[in-house]
Design brief:
With 96 residues, the protein is an all-alpha fold. It contains 5 helices and no strands. The protein has helices at residues 11-23, 27-40, 45-52, 59-72, 91-94. Helix 3 crosses helix 4 (59-72). The radius of gyration is 16 Å and the shape is globular.
């Protein structure tokens, strides 16, 4: 996968990303929207990962965000349900 990919945004897509970057209650979504806008403005995803956001990211994470945004739109930037570590204790299992 070439690492210098850009992102072409329509006016509606740009407006949606700017709105969510500025006002979304989820901090991670604001940061991901900011990353998409920086890529669309000509920064490489690697540069965004190194110094374009509040903290450093693995460039592969930025490429994945871009890929999911292209495939699913804003919904692709959200954390998927069911991700992360599952609970070690389940109250239902203890009642058996």
């Amino acid at each position: 996968m070439p690492k210098h990919l850009t992102l072409e945004l329509s006016q509606e897509q740009r407006a949606e990303l700017v709105k969510h970057r500025n006002t979304d209650p989820l901090p991670y979504l604001r940061e991901r929207c900011a990353a998409m806008l920086k890529i669309a403005d000509g920064m490489t995803a690697a540069a965004v990962a190194r110094s374009g956001l509040l903290r450093r990211y693995d460039p592969d994470a930025i490429y994945e965000w871009r890929r999911r945004y292209l495939a699913q739109g804003l919904a692709g930037l959200r954390i998927q349900a069911g991700r992360g570590r599952k609970p070690a204790f389940s109250p239902c299992a203890s009642s058996l």
